[in-house]
């Protein structure tokens, strides 16, 4: 019996040594807490929720060394609600990401599957809403019009991400429509780049989605994940972050253009008649984070958004002011307590819009305040 055990142990040790360069990692974030909404359809509400700030998710990622500096890689990532155990992203098992590909230390990575676009990869981390993995749900720009909070992912995607060349990184993505005779019917392409000097980080990104309002449900974007359903959506922008000691200060500008706007999807509604003409948004964000101690940080952002929207009654020019402040206290490297306050005011310019903090039910007035408190655990 002892001999059999020793032989098995030696065999296992040899196998581990032979595959020392291979790995599979289980990881995730669980965010649970309470929120107070000052005006949810005319009423205030206190609710228990999952992912008030960071979307709860878990996943596997793996790497197999193929030699010569090349490795096979994969990632399977699932979003869920910790409050009721259900899957997010339309009930997908791996709704955050699911891809496989090759990575080379010199040339970069080429992956295939459901993936984040280049605006999310390069520009979003410079914004306040994109500084947390999974997004910061209470700090997204109105309706997450620029997708910096990662409201939608790209299906059928082929993506290239470069290696780090002296602080410069760049990448591109193409999401196929998968429709015979309709190559551009619900397709996506995007580009992005960043440059890190150590104290300054610059980034820019571009995304275009064609015919996202079509009936092609097997295309690049799942329609139920999008706030806007339009014949064409363009997102582009740039940003800079400055790091000095314990402080980080950033500015991000984005613009979203919607052509042939057909309808508004999901919980947020613009409340104006869609006539197929379109809308555009320009967002200007200033953000900052300061680490007072290794255990305590305070951060926030101010965003001014201006828009032009066509409706049956003519053009409207609503304006949004958003302020978010978040305090974090780390009980350990993996567990923290947070409090976040987000306030939004809208000058609706006759459009009939109400204030609408991301992830919440819209206000019946021009103002809305949301307070979230909770706990996050990383594993």
Structural overview:
With 379 residues, the chain is mostly beta strands. It has one domain: Porin (Beta Barrel). Helix content is 6%, strand content 55%. It is built from two helices and 18 strands. The chain has helices at 2-18, 118-123; strands at residues 23-40, 43-50, 57-67, 70-79, 97-104, 108-115, 154-161, 168-175, 187-196, 200-210, 228-244, 247-264, 278-293, 296-311, 314-316, 319-330, 335-347, 367-378. The protein has a 16-stranded antiparallel barrel. A hairpin with a 3-residue loop joins strand 5 (97-104) and strand 6 (108-115). The longest helix has 17 residues, at 2-18. The chain is globular, with a radius of gyration of 22 Å. The two termini are 38 Å apart. Mean pLDDT is 88; it is low at 1-20 and 265-275. Residues 1-20 form the signal peptide. Homotrimer. It is found in: Cell outer membrane.
Give keywords.
disordered N terminus, 16-stranded antiparallel barrel, 18 strands, mainly beta, 379 residues, single chain, 6% helix, Gram-neg_bact_OMP, globular
Largest sheet: 16 strands, antiparallel, barrel
Principal-axes shape call: globular
What is the distance, rounded to the nearest whole angstrom, between the alpha carbons of the first and last residues?
38 Å
Assigned CATH superfamily: Porin
Mean pLDDT metric: 88
E-strand count: 18
Tell me the CATH architecture.
Answer: Beta Barrel
CATH topology name, in short, is Porin
**How are helices and strands ordered from N to C?**
HEEEEEEHEEEEEEEEEEEE
Helix percent reads under 10%
Which regions contain 5 or more consecutive residues with pLDDT less than 50? 1-20, 265-275
Beta-strand level of the residues, as a percent range? over 45%
Number of distinct helices: 2
Please tell me the total number of domains: 1
Q: What Rg, in angstroms, do the CA atoms define?
A: 22 Å
The level-1 CATH class: Mainly Beta
Give the spatial strand order of the biggest sheet.
Answer: 1-3-4-5-6-7-8-9-10-11-12-13-14-16-17-18
Helix/strand-derived category reads mainly beta
């Amino acid at each position: 019996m002892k001999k059999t055990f020793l032989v098995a142990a030696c065999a296992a040790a040899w196998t581990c040594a032979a595959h020392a360069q291979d790995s599979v990692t289980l990881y995730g974030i669980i965010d649970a807490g309470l929120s107070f909404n000052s005006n949810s359809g005319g009423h205030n509400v206190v609710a228990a929720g999952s992912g008030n700030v960071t979307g709860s998710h878990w996943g596997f990622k793996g790497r197999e060394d193929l030699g010569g500096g090349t490795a096979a890689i994969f990632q399977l990532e699932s979003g869920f609600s910790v409050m009721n155990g259900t899957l997010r992203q339309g009930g997908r098992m791996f709704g955050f990401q699911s891809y496989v590909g090759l990575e080379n230390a010199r040339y970069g990575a080429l992956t295939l599957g459901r993936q984040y676009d280049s605006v999310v990869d390069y520009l979003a981390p410079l914004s306040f809403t994109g500084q947390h993995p999974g997004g910061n749900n209470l700090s997204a720009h109105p309706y997450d019009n620029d997708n910096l909070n990662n409201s939608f992912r790209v299906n059928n995607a082929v993506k290239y991400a470069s290696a780090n060349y002296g602080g410069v990184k760049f990448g591109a993505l193409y999401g196929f429509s998968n429709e015979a005779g309709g190559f551009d019917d619900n397709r996506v392409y995007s580009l992005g780049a960043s440059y890190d000097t150590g104290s300054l980080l610059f980034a820019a990104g571009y995304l275009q989605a064609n015919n996202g309002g079509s009936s092609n449900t097997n295309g690049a974007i799942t329609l139920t994940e999008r706030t806007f359903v339009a014949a064409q959506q363009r997102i582009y922008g740039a940003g800079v972050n400055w790091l000095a000691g314990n402080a980080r200060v950033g500015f991000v500008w984005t613009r979203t253009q919607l052509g042939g706007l057909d309808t508004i999807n999901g919980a947020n509604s613009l409340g104006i008649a869609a006539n197929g003409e379109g809308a555009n948004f320009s967002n200007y964000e200033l953000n900052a984070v300061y680490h007072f101690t290794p255990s305590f940080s305070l951060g926030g952002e101010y965003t001014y958004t201006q828009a032009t929207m066509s409706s049956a009654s003519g053009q409207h020019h609503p304006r949004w002011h958003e302020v978010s402040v978040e305090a974090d206290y780390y009980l350990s490297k993996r567990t923290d307590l947070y409090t976040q306050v987000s306030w939004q005011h809208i000058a609706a310019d006759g459009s009939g819009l109400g204030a609408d903090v991301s992830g919440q039910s819209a206000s019946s007035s021009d103002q809305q305040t949301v307070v979230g408190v909770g706990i996050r655990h990383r594993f």
